[in-house]
Amino acid sequence: IGLELIDLKIEGLDTTPEYRERLFWIKQTGAATYVLQTDTLRDVAKELGKSPGASLGAGMMIIPPLTQPPPSSQSTQQPQQTPATGVVAQPTTKTCPKCGRPVPMDAIFCPYCGYRFPQSRKCPYCGREIPADSVFCPYCGKKLS
Fold first, then answer.
1. pLDDT per position as a tens digit, 88-105
2. CA atoms within 13 A of residue 71's CA, in its CB half-sphere
3. Which of 129, 130, 105, 134 is nearest to 117 (CA)?
4. Which of 17-31, 53-67, 108-122 has the highest mean pLDDT?
5. Is the torsion defined by CA of 4, 6, 12, 14 positive or negative?
6. Of 143, 126, 106, 115, whose CA–CA distance to 134 is shortest?
7. What is the pTM of this model?
């Protein structure tokens, strides 16, 4: 005894024109952050237009950063290869696991949330980076003193 749902169609479901436009652009571009950024830019321009005297200086400082495309989350985490030399560039930042913000590669503490990054040292036998409190090297298996 049971029911089987074969097909479900919901008709007549609509939303406000503002959200309909947002959904259209998210479908077209695939980047919700870019759509939200352009909405913010539109709102800022509308508000700056209300105060003509202050809008010149404020607009010069606020508008240019909002017109840049949003940063890609993959660009800070993956090393990039330069086509001319074939050398892989080492990343200059690492991501804090607690707050998710980029921090310098050699940081011991996150400057934004205070997270202490695990310390490491080099194995005297194989030279690879290992956790500072290791008793055995996880790569070569030698006992550390």
1. 666 788 888 888 888 888
2. 8
3. 105
4. 108-122
5. positive
6. 143
7. 0.32
